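Explain this one:

_____
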Amino acid sequence: GQAKPSAPVTNGNAGAAFVVGMIVQVEARTWPGINKPGGVGRITHIHHSEEEVISVDVRYTVVGGRERRVPIQHVQLAPEFDAANNGDSAIMHSQPRNMRDRSGLLGRWTRC
């Protein structure tokens, strides 16, 4: 089943609580026959049996893409990347900038 965002599910091995929406660091798994680079991502689904987390689904934030059923032993909490935990939520909710706006290069800043 899927864990609700408000109810953290603990991992019996590491004692870490995982919640849907949490930022995690996925270990690179590259050996013969496996080419999964890992990286920083957000948990989209938690797979567990009874009270123990078995695996998680992750949507990667930097390189994009997603991976399903990542074994929990390859996943670590990454609070340094989670803006909601660092109090930087204003950055996440600020107005999106138009990346094609080149007025600043021409000396015509319209936003202050």
